[in-house]
Design brief:
The chain is α+β, with helices and mostly antiparallel strands. The chain has a single domain, classed as q2cbj1_9rhob like domain (Jelly Rolls), CATH 2.60.120. It contains seven helices and 13 strands. The strands form five sheets. The chain has a five-stranded antiparallel beta sheet. Strands 1-10 form a two-stranded parallel sheet. A two-stranded antiparallel sheet has the order 3-4. Strand 8 and strand 9 form a beta hairpin. The radius of gyration is 18 Å and the shape is globular. The relative contact order is 0.23.
Length: 295
C-alpha cells in the first residue's frame, strides 16, 4: 500500500562518477563491491556491435517519431515528445516488445557471465525485458527514485541489469545510483509523477549520488534494494534509448507478474503470443514456463 501524502523532496548536493569495475578484478572483489555500494558499473563491457542490432531494430519500429541522426551521434525526436504510457507510446511499445533482438541480448553468453558475478553460476533471467525511451522536453516525467524490490516484489537476490545502446551524456538524462542505499532494506513509497508512479523515501543526509556519461555497451548491475532514478532529458532533440531486465539465482522466489511482457497489464494486445509470433528462432519462447520459484 502506498503511504498517504506527498513524496518527500530530496536535495542533490553532490554527484560523483560511478565506480568503475572490470571482470579481471575477479568475483571476490566484485561481489564485495556489489555488497558495499549496491551496484557494479562495467564500462564497454559489451562491444558496440553487440548492442547495435537492438538499437537498429528499436529505431525501425519507433520511426518516424524517433530516428538516428549521424551529426548528433544519437537518436533524435522527429515530432512531439512522448513518454511511457502516452497514447503514442502505447501504440509503439508493443512493436518494441516484439523485437527478438531485445530479448535475445540478455541471454548472450557475455551478458550472462556478468550476471553470474553476483547471482552465481545458475542464473534465471526474467522474461520481462524492458526498453526505455527517454524523450526530450518531457521534464517531470522521468523515473523517480525507487527500489526494484518494491516494484517487482523481489527478494534480496534479485538484481537489475541495464545496458546502454548508444553514447549518452548529462543532457540526455542518465541512470543515477544512490550508493549503499540497499543496506537499509525496502523503504516506504509515495505517489509521484513519472515512470512507475511511485517514489521511495530519501533519508536526510543521502545527498551523494553516483552517475556517469555512458557509451554503447556499458553495463550497470544493481541490487534489488538499491535506490536509482533517471535524470531528466533536458536536450532539445536527442533521445536516450536503453534496455534492462532483472535476474536472480535459479530457484529464488519470483512474483508471477514478472513473467508477463512489460506493460502487458495495461496494453490489451501485448501478450506472449504477440511478442513471439514473428521470431525466427523459438528456443527462448516460453523458456520460463516451468520455473519452480513462482509465487
Amino acid at each position: 500500500m502506498l503511504a498517504v501524502g506527498t513524496a518527500p523532496s530530496f536535495v542533490e548536493v553532490d554527484y560523483r562518477p560511478l565506480t568503475r569495475s572490470d571482470v579481471v578484478e575477479g568475483q571476490e572483489t566484485l561481489r564485495a563491491r556489489f555488497q558495499a555500494e549496491g551496484y557494479l558499473y562495467f564500462p564497454r563491457a559489451l562491444d558496440a556491435s553487440t548492442v547495435e542490432p537492438v538499437l537498429r531494430d528499436m529505431l525501425s519500429v519507433l520511426g518516424p517519431h524517433i530516428r538516428w541522426d549521424d551529426s548528433a551521434g544519437s537518436p533524435i525526436l522527429a515530432g512531439e515528445p512522448f513518454f511511457e504510457s502516452d497514447p503514442l507510446w502505447d501504440r509503439l511499445y508493443p512493436k518494441v516488445q516484439a523485437l527478438e533482438s531485445l530479448h535475445r541480448l540478455f541471454h548472450r553468453c557475455e551478458v550472462q557471465r556478468l550476471m553470474e558475478l553476483v547471482a552465481g553460476p545458475d542464473v534465471f533471467v526474467y522474461p520481462m525485458k524492458m526498453a526505455r525511451v527517454a524523450a526530450p522536453r518531457k521534464l517531470g516525467f522521468e523515473t523517480p527514485p525507487h527500489q526494484d524490490a518494491f516494484s517487482h516484489h523481489a527478494g534480496p537476490t534479485m538484481a537489475g541489469i541495464w545496458i546502454a545502446l548508444h553514447d549518452a551524456d548529462e543532457a540526455m538524462g542518465r541512470l543515477t545510483i544512490l550508493p549503499g542505499s540497499h543496506a537499509g532494506g525496502v523503504r516506504p513509497v509515495f505517489q509521484a509523477q513519472g515512470v512507475g508512479g511511485v517514489q521511495c523515501e530519501i533519508y536526510p543526509g543521502e545527498t551523494l549520488w553516483h552517475v556517469s556519461d555512458v557509451t554503447a555497451g556499458d553495463v550497470i548491475i544493481f541490487h534489488s534494494q538499491t535506490v536509482h532514478r533517471a535524470q531528466p532529458n533536458v536536450d532539445k532533440q536527442r533521445v536516450r534509448l536503453s534496455v534492462d531486465t532483472r535476474f536472480c539465482d535459479y530457484g529464488a522466489p519470483v512474483f508471477s507478474t514478472n513473467l508477463e511482457p512489460h506493460h502487458a497489464w495495461r496494453i490489451p494486445e501485448l501478450d506472449w503470443e504477440y511478442v513471439y509470433r514473428d521470431w525466427h528462432a523459438r528456443d527462448l519462447c516460453y523458456y520460463w514456463q516451468d520455473y519452480p520459484g513462482l509465487f
